[in-house]
Design goal:
Length: 274
């Protein structure tokens, strides 16, 4: 369990750093130099990849709820880093909303059971396959909406889907790595599809809204939705007697996201075209 916790914390820090790099890259785009070729964006993808690798290790030892809730700590790390690096001022409503997100996620993390189920049903792959197609269609529909929060929401669902895909892989903790086993499983390709949807919508959201708000919507979605799916679909355990704290944590975190989604985006003062 300690191994899972350590890797989850490392993933949270790396995800925050990746988001900062990608957000800064959105300020440097210009005709002939789109986001996809910006060095800081590519560096952010590399850091995200390292964070994802840490997440995979953590998910082999802990339930989805526990891992994703730790990743939600990126809300605080990103908010503080943005304030220091870009002199971005958050309004009172945004600060309270971020605090609500963090407080809710603490309750969510505490309510997760400590044991990770070892087996999943093949039906899970079918459900995840339908889900990733639906996410791709939804992403296409909101791509030109000009609003950050729907894209951040879809990004959270995309990355949350990668966690569920990892959990649906038919591997047990301690098993030796076998490439042939991985490439023969649908979950491997579902993981890649979820990641593509997640990274494209999240990157688009970063170019439209403030980093702190986008990260909060993204992180809470990434925690809550796959966490609930993990309980219902994958059999992830909830700590006995913690049903009410879990419900309270979900309500508080979602309330924080709603407030952030309704707060008008204020560009960073440092945001300019280079």
């Amino acid at each position: 369990m300690l191994t899972g916790l350590l890797f989850a914390v490392c993933a949270m820090v790396l995800n925050s750093l990746g988001g900062l790099l990608q957000s800064d890259a959105t300020t440097r785009t210009r005709p002939g130099r789109p986001l996809a070729v910006q060095p800081r964006y590519l560096s952010g993808l590399l850091v995200d990849g390292l964070g994802w690798a840490c997440t995979v290790v953590a998910l082999r030892h802990l339930p989805v709820f526990a891992v994703q809730a730790i990743l939600g700590g990126a809300i605080a790390v990103t908010a503080v880093a943005t304030r220091i690096l870009h002199d971005t001022r958050l309004g009172l409503a945004e600060k309270l909303a971020i605090a609500a997100c963090l407080g809710g996620l603490v309750l969510v993390a505490a309510s997760a059971g400590g044991d990770r189920p070892a087996n999943t049903s093949p039906t899970v792959d079918v459900i995840l396959g339908v889900s990733v197609v639906a996410l791709a269609i939804a992403g296409r529909l909101v791509w030109h909406s000009g609003r950050a929060w729907p894209l951040a929401f879809l990004g959270g669902l995309g990355f949350g889907g990668t966690a569920l895909a990892v959990r649906s892989l038919h591997l047990r903790p301690g098993d030796e790595f076998d490439l042939l086993v991985l490439v023969s499983q649908p979950a491997t390709y579902l993981l890649l599809a979820f990641w593509i949807v997640g990274i494209t919508t999240y990157s688009k959201a970063l170019g439209l809204g403030s980093l702190a708000s986008v990260t909060a919507v993204f992180a809470v979605t990434e925690v809550i939705v796959p966490g609930l799916v993990g309980i219902v679909l994958l059999g992830d355990p909830v700590r006995p007697g913690w049903a009410v704290p879990l419900a309270v944590g979900l309500l508080v975190a979602v309330t924080g996201v709603v407030v952030l989604a309704r707060t008008p985006a204020r560009p960073n003062r440092a945001r300019r075209v280079h």
